[in-house]
Write a structure and sequence with these properties.
heterodimer, A: 425 residues, alpha+beta, Cytochrome Bc1 Complex, Chain A, domain 1, 2 domains, 5-stranded mixed beta sheet, 13 strands, globular, B: alpha+beta, 10 strands, 44% helix, 18% strand
Chain lengths: 425, 395
């Protein structure tokens, strides 16, 4: 693939990366701003996401309506979303529309309107989403596990927030949060067919001069705060949802790559260990896998499975057995080779579109890692052997937490399995 | 069908067959989707799991999806491994083994899939909407099948279903990606696909009925109320009308400045979200509306949705509104041409159903729609009295 990467600094300090990619005249832009929901001030959980939602509701000289007219009138997509470690502003448009739309990126973070009325609307929408999410047993189990792994720490809540605290958020809190945007670290990545005068287009959004921001530093994010080893949530569902997980290490830490290979081995594709052992050989589930997001701090590493309530005991035994196996049995030569092939395959799949390329580069740079981080990982992964993977598992995954959601009889059956299992405590 | 995308890092191989759930007889409920699962359980030559193992070892991935009209199996693979993956894929889909013990095990997986979807009250509500709106037509029945029917299926019936539908005139293979140096066409000439016989009887397609009406459904575990509505538009064979439908649903519910979102979410603040999806189907496209709101707001939401739709007749769309929709739909289409997976899917699906237009043509169709034509041809079809309306409320 022929793509040329340029790097420079925008006046004011924000690094700008431009990935010129021949092909369809599409432009994807990603502005990563460190400080997502994990940086929500005390008593203001939900503030980062609320602010992200309000950023596109008016900035500079444009009201929310005018901004929407401009973006939608170009048939473009503009989104702002807070994750745990950062807020991401994403723009995707036809390259011809870049002159109209690129100035918005910095303008949105530099001079958002933060109108009371629009904040109230966005807050109401977030509160309703939090409520609706409780329809989903996976969400309930996931929220419960997050509490078990992170307690009331920075990673302990949904980026949407915690209802009573979200209810109290208004212009005052958001203004002080907005003033800090970019100062904890920011990076802007453009990919696709990018216009020549891109710097001046970007700066047009901040009066043509400079936007005060700093490059993302490599800094360790929030840690786990382990709580209850097992937790259950009663829900009158057909299935029991089971999640088993630990908080581990940040993206880019020495053992993260070993965990990533374990995740490929266990959860990527239909030949993965969990898929074969739990679905193909036992028919225990439709959906089974491993959740391992990239994080600045201690990332979760989670097995998930949902199985019919009447097979709760079998499902719990099988899931715990797989975790135990991970600690006790090193990968065979073939398994290790397959895991590495999958890791390479996943990398290629994440490089198909300009948006994917921009997204991955922004994530890596936002974490304070080098731009060639993904390539280095491919090389480094080749050097890892089965002992390295097992050592990482034994060091990081020896005390998993068990989260269950389902009808009470199924909960009881799964809890009993946990009580008598070596991992139970 | 093949299309060269020199910039793409991967090739997508996509096998399509006119064997969706709508081709099932009443006793075959769920068989099309169950077969899609069983295909991955191996063929005459490949033991269960060997296909996934090999494709994934080559750095690829595969998946499949069953719809009402058709089913497709796709593999995303580095170019150098594409010839091998192609042979494996064709072997798998054309000669599935359907072994007894695998069948019993995979039935459990399908039943788990069904249970998982039944635990999502929103999915239950949509299924109920389709059942009421489309009555006995296949589009009103669950693709996953009825539990009792699934429990009674056996491999012989599945083999018969496969034999009946996986035929030369009912299949299409599409390939998109960096094809330089590969001669997949020559490989195909010598493959089992080239030796496939045509079907002996033509399959009839019954146009989907849409019964206007209304109902209220009480659902346990629902946290927010839903207003669901269903309409019918012309079927996929009329691709120009499909693009018109895409424009109209975009004009109504895509973005903050669309009529429904602006009125119900931004101004009146009655809903958490409101969506209008165009489901492109051969026997008649279905437009499905979903509004999520507090249960107390449901009557107001329904009133306002009706007012917006009826307002399209009294206040026809302005040119600016149509242009906004044209840009959104055109860009959405252009953006989708970036990835080999979506290009292969577009090509494969079109050709499966005998549509041979090239990839740029839909962009021209979009330009042929204006406010006057939308008002004349499509807006009258999307009126409240033409819809089935379902209110889903928490128990």
């Amino acid at each position: 693939m022929s793509a040329a990467l340029e790097q420079r600094q925008l006046p004011g300090g924000c690094p700008l990366w431009v990935l010129h990619r021949p092909g369809p005249a599409i432009l994807s832009a990603k502005l990563w701003l460190r400080g997502g929901s994990s940086a929500d001030p005390s008593g203001q959980r939900g503030a980062a996401q609320l602010l992200a939602g309000v950023l596109s509701r008016g900035c500079g000289e444009l009201s929310g309506e005018q901004l929407a007219d401009l973006v939608e009138g170009c048939g473009a997509g503009l989104r702002c979303e807070a994750g745990e470690d950062g807020t991401l502003v994403s723009l995707k448009c036809a390259s011809d529309d870049a002159p109209l739309l690129l100035p918005l990126l910095l303008q949105m973070v530099h001079s958002p309107w933060l109108v009371d009325d629009q904040i109230a609307l966005e807050r109401q929408l977030n509160l309703q989403t939090l409520q609706r999410q409780r329809e989903d047993p996976f969400q309930l189990s996931h929220d419960q596990l997050r509490q078990q792994l992170y307690g009331d720490g920075p990673y302990g809540h949904d980026p949407l927030g915690v209802e009573p605290e979200l209810e109290g958020l208004g212009p005052q809190q958001l203004s002080s949060l907005a003033a800090g945007l970019g100062h904890q670290g920011s990076v802007l990545v453009l990919a696709g067919v990018v216009p020549a005068d891109v710097d001046s287009l970007l700066l047009a959004g901040v009066g043509g001069e400079a936007w005060g921001a700093t490059a993302p530093q490599r800094r360790r994010g929030p840690t786990g705060q382990p709580g209850a080893a097992i937790a259950s949530c009663t829900d009158e569902t057909e299935q029991l949802v089971l999640m088993l997980g630990c908080s581990t290490v940040p993206l880019g830490s020495p053992q993260a790559l070993a965990l990533r290979l374990l995740q490929c081995h266990l959860g990527v594709g239909m030949s993965s260990r969990l898929f074969v052992a739990l679905r193909e050989e036992q028919g225990l589930a439709y959906d089974v896998g491993v959740h391992q997001p990239a994080r600045l701090g201690d990332a979760p590493f989670v097995f998930h499975l949902s199985s019919s309530s009447e097979r709760a005991e079998l499902a719990a035994e099988a899931l715990l057995a797989e975790w135990q196996r991970l600690l006790e049995t090193p990968l065979s030569g073939d398994e290790l080779q397959l895991a590495k092939a999958k890791f390479r395959g996943q990398e290629a799949m994440g490089r198909q579109t300009s948006s994917q390329l921009a997204d991955r580069l922004a994530l890596v740079l936002g974490h304070g890692l080098p731009a060639d981080f993904a390539d280095r990982c491919l090389t480094d992964a080749d050097q890892l052997n089965a002992d390295d993977l097992q050592a990482a598992a034994q060091q990081l995954l020896s005390q998993p937490h068990f989260s269950l959601c389902g009808p009470s009889a199924a909960l009881k059956a799964a809890e009993a399995v946990w009580q008598r299992h070596p991992l139970g405590r | 069908m093949e299309l060269d995308l020199p910039q793409a890092p991967l090739i997508c191989l996509d096998f399509w067959c006119r064997a969706g759930s709508a081709t099932e007889t009443g006793r075959e409920s769920g068989l099309a989707h169950f077969l899609e699962h069983m295909v991955f359980k191996g063929s005459e030559h490949l033991p269960a799991g060997a296909f996934d193992q090999r494709v994934e070892a080559l750095g690829g991935s595969s998946n499949a999806a069953t719809g009402f009209d058709d089913v497709h199996y796709h593999v995303l693979i580095p170019p150098e491994a594409a010839p091998e993956a192609l042979d494996l894929l064709l072997d798998l889909v054309l000669k599935p083994r359907l072994a007894e013990d695998d069948f019993a095990m995979e039935r459990q997986v399908v039943l788990e899939e069904l249970a998982q979807s039944e635990d999502q009250p929103e999915e239950v509500a949509f299924q109920d909407l389709l059942r009421r709106a489309c009555a006995d037509h296949a589009y009103g029945l669950p693709i996953l099948g009825r539990r009792e029917a699934l429990e009674g299926h056996h491999p012989e019936a599945m083999a018969a279903f496969h034999h009946r539908h996986y035929r030369a005139d009912r299949c299409c293979l599409s390939v998109a990606g960096p094809l330089a140096g590969l001669d997949l066409m020559a490989q195909l000439e010598a493959s089992p696909l080239a030796r496939l016989n045509a079907s002996t009887e033509a399959a009839a397609m019954t146009p989907v009925p849409l019964h206007a009406g209304e109902a209220t459904l009480t659902l346990p575990r629902l946290e927010a109320a839903r207003l669901l509505m269903a309409w019918r538009l012309p079927g996929a064979a009329d691709q120009e009308a499909v693009m018109g439908g895409d424009l109209l649903t975009t004009l109504l519910a895509e973005g903050r400045r669309s009529r429904l979102v602006e009125r119900l979410r931004e101004q009146l603040r009655l809903v958490e979200s409101i969506d209008l999806d165009l489901n492109v189907l051969e026997a008649g496209c279905l437009v499905l509306l979903e509004a999520v709101c507090e249960v107390e707001q449901l009557p107001a939401v329904e009133r306002e949705v009706r007012a917006v739709l009826e307002g399209l007749l009294t206040q026809p769309p302005q040119e600016a509104e149509v242009e906004r929709a044209r840009r959104l739909v055109s860009n959405g289409y252009r953006f989708s041409l970036e990835a080999p997976g979506s290009v292969a899917a577009l090509l494969g699906n079109s050709n499966l159903w005998g549509r041979t237009h090239d990839l740029d043509t839909p962009l021209q169709w979009i330009q042929r729609w204006d406010a006057e034509r939308l008002t004349r041809q499509l807006i009258p079809l999307l009126q409240p009295d033409q819809a089935f309306t379902l209110r889903a409320v928490p128990a």
